[in-house]
Every structure is written in C-alpha cells, then in structure tokens.
Amino acid sequence: MQKSSSIKDASNRPNLVYIHTDQHNPYVTGCYGDPLVQTPNLDRLANQGVTFTNVYCNSPICVPSRMSMLSGQHPHQNEVWTNNHILNSGIPTLAHSMGAAGYHPVLVGRMHSIGPDQLHGYSERLVGDHSPNFIGGSGPDRGILEGTAGPDRISLERAGAGQSGYEIHDESVTNVAVDYLNRLGSQKRWRGELEPFSISLGFMLPHPPYVARSEHYEIYRDQMTMPKKPRRYQDETHSFLRRWREYTGAIDVTQNQVLDARAAYWGLVTSVDAMIGRVLTALQENDLADNTIIVYTSDHGDMVGEHGLWWKHVFYEESVKVPLIISWADEIEGGQQCDRVVSALDVTATILDALSAPALPNSPGRSLIPLMKNASESQDWNDIAFSEYCADAYTPDDDCYLRMIRQDEWKLVYYHGYEPQLFNLNEDPDELNDRAMDPECSGIVKELTQQVLADWNPDEIQRKMAQKRADADILTAWAKNTQPQEAIRWDYLPEMSRLDDFD
Questions:
Q1: Could you tell me the residue range of the domain that residue 94 belongs to?
Q2: d(Cα 395, Cα 400) in Å, to the nearest integer?
Q3: In 148-213, alpha helices (H)
Q4: Quick check: is 405 in a domain?
Q5: Is 164:497 a contact under the CB 8 Å cutoff?
C-alpha cells in the first residue's frame, strides 16, 4: 500500500466527480484512437487531464469488478466472485473512507451491490439499480429485449436501432446529477463558499442490449467496420474459449448481426458521452470545476466481435481493460498520456489520496498521483496488474477458475485445468500469437504462473464458492417467499424497450 502523496492538504481538499460507466471498451473512444466513434466530451476531458492506456479491471464481470473498486480489494480478498455474491458490509469502502475524512459522499445510479446494504458507506443514493436488491428477487421485465443483456446469442439477434431501459435509466442519472450540481451552485452563490463535495455517478451504458436509439445507431451503421481480429469458431484452438463460444452461441454470427451490434454499441458510447457532457457543463456553469478532481472509468470492457468473442468474461485486452481519464484543474497538467500498467484498485487509492482520506487498510491499491504529476517521465512504478474470473458453472457441467497477470510487456492467462495463454503485448498488441507453448518462453510461463498462484488458490476458491452456493439457496428461497421490501431500486418498465425493425 503506497503512502499518501496528495498535492492538496486537508484544509483545502478538492471536490470529487467520479463517473463510472458499465462495459466500456476503452478502444471505442476517440481519445484512445478510435477514428469512428464520436466522444467529444470524454476527448475534451482527456485534453484537460491524464489518459491512462493500460488499466486493468480486477474481474471482467460486473459485480466482482465493482465491489473490488469499492472495497479496494481483489475478489479473492473480499470473496465476491460472481454477480450473486454479497460484499460483506463490515469491509470499509471508498465511500466509508470519504465519509471518515469529512465528506458527504453521494451516489447517483449504478452500484450493482447485491444484498440489503445498498449504500456501502454512501450517505445518500439518489437513483438505484434496475436489478433486485436481493438474491432471488424479481428481475425487471425487459419486454422485447428480454435476455439480450448477454452473454447469449439472442443479444446478437436482437441488436440494432431501438431503445433499452438502460438508456432511460442513465438519463435519470444525468438529470438528477445535473440538478444536484445546480443546487450546489445555488448554495455557493448564496453563501459565497461551499464545503467540499463528493458525487459518484453510475451509468449503465454502453452495456448491452446492443440497441441504440436511431439517431445514434444511424451515425455508424453504414460506416461500421468488421472486427479487426476476426476468429472463426473452427479456428479457435483454446479449449476453454471454444467451450465459452459454444455456451454463449457465438459460433457463426452473421455479418449483418456483427454490424448491427457494433453500430449500436458505438451509438451507446456516443449516447453516454453526451450525458457525461451535460454533467461537465453543469459543473462549469455552476462555477464548481475549480479544485475538482474528475475521474472517468468503467468496470470492464466488451469484446464487440474481436477474436470472435462478445460481451466480457475473458482476458483479451478489449474485455479486461478499462478507460481511465483523470482531470484536476490547476493541479494536473492536461493532455498527458500514461502508458504504465495500472490496476483498477489503484484508481480507488488515487481518489482517497487526492481527497486526503484514509487509505483502505487491506487494499493493495497504489496512488497514481506521482504518475500524474508528469506522466511522460519515468517513475518508480511496478508495472503489474491482476484480474480474476471465477464462476460456479460457465457451462452446465463445468466451473471455471481463471486469473490473469500483466507484468511489464507480458500477459499470462492461467486457466485452472486448461492450458495457459501467454502474449508479449509489445511485440503482439493484437494478441494473435499465443507463446505459452513456445520453449523460449518456458521460463516466463513458470515465473508468471508462480506469481498468479502465490496468493490465489483455485481449489480453496472452489471450496468457498460451494459454501456460498449453499448459503445462496436459503437466501434465494427466502427472497422469493417473503418478497422483502427493496430499499433503493429504479423501476425498469417493459415498455421502455423497443427494437425498431423487429418482426
């Protein structure tokens, strides 16, 4: 755990605007080099701050990734490996630490926490999730888009122009956030000063369904490109990835399905960028931008057809990497790019460091502030990140226990019970040349495998997950039978979903 290196002292602490989207592949952003996508607001934010190019989520799936960033702990530390696992409320979080430092942390929108604790340290939560609070609770009725949130072939078959409730949810988040900032601005104008504020925004987009409103979808459909790295199912040699494609139905996706889904995904990125622009405008118009640190990131990416894969769950760059843009007016020079290897846990540590809040005691996260002071200069930084994905049954007859390590230019993916993958990302950034069986790389495979397994035991995780399944059986039956009142939930209505060309 890195010692604090905050620029601001506690008497002049900054404000925080923490923006967290869902399933945003960083490569589908203008400032990350995409020549097609329209993301003017994120690009402008990047020009004002630092863009990090090698940031890895701690699990390429929603709840484990989010609970890792919230708690500052890896999934094997907080024991949240699946979307049905509950984060222990006794684990202090980013929000707890901000509150301990004197902030009044407010969350608007997505957290994706399962269980009765829908705050986890936030003082207020102004918009909830569309999903149930409890294991076994009733999920939303998505109408015509039922089943399209993935990973399932239906989300590729029902892709294109239309609308999902996720976009309406995010508009609610945007409206409430803008109203909150307007009220802060009014208080500042009335009182002449304002206590430092902390607001976190949780957006759903660009998470599937791969369905975008026509005004955004039509921007991209005619000019959309096919994946740069296509891979036919019959050419897939890795046994786990073959089984994953079989399980999800991503075996023989048609060209029209690929183009429809990709055009919609690009459209969703543009849609959420516009919403973020509204928030940033409200920040400026209310004279709140000075001494405000703005953090933009996501929980994981999306394969969008690369390597023949869709959704997340895997450790290719498109799935396991996340965007990270940090802007801090008058403190951090704008227009910087940092290529050092970073963990999403480091984002949490950085926020707390910037706010002069106590570091989370059991977090391995490191503050990025030394790198942000001058991202182009060499820093004393260990270029390492881990990510893990463990599932009770990724196919009907099998479990999976996977972990990735990125160390300098090397990435190793450990598949428990399967052959590993090894890529040199300097020589092979597209991950087309798996060198795990290359005799010249045997030493690298051995060294990285030892690091993966040093504090991570797949057999022990399997045992703990079996215990959680037994607990979940009781909790699921309880929720179904008692229908407990949900503390915070956003109402997703079936009529919010439509698919314009569906017969």
A1: 13-377
A2: 9
A3: 154-157, 165-191
A4: no
A5: yes
